[in-house]
Amino acid sequence: MNSTAPTLTPTTRALAWCLHVLVVALLALAAGRAVVDHHPQAGLITATAAACAVIYAAGPVLPRVRRSRRAAALWLAAVGACWLVLLTRSADGVWVAFPLYFLQLHLLSRRAGLAAVAATAVTAITGFAAHQGAFSPAMAIGPAIGAAVAVAVVWGYQALYRESEQRRRLIEELTATRADLATAQHAAGVLAERERLAREIHDTLAQGLSSIQLLLRAAERALPHAPENAARYVDQARQAAVDDLAEARRFVAALTPPALEGTTLAGALERLCATTSIRHRITARFHLTGEPLPLTTAHEVALLRVAQSALANTVRHAEAATAEVTLSYLGDHVAVDIVDDGGGFRPDRLPAPDPEAGGFGLAAMRARVHALGGTLTVESAPGHGTALAAQLPLTPSAHDEPEARA
Question: Which long-range contacts (CB under 8 A, 24 or more apart) does 145-153 make?
Answer without folding.
Answer: 146/97, 146/98, 146/101, 146/121, 147/101, 147/117, 147/118, 147/120, 147/121, 150/98, 150/101, 150/102, 150/105, 150/117, 151/101, 151/105, 151/114, 151/117, 153/102
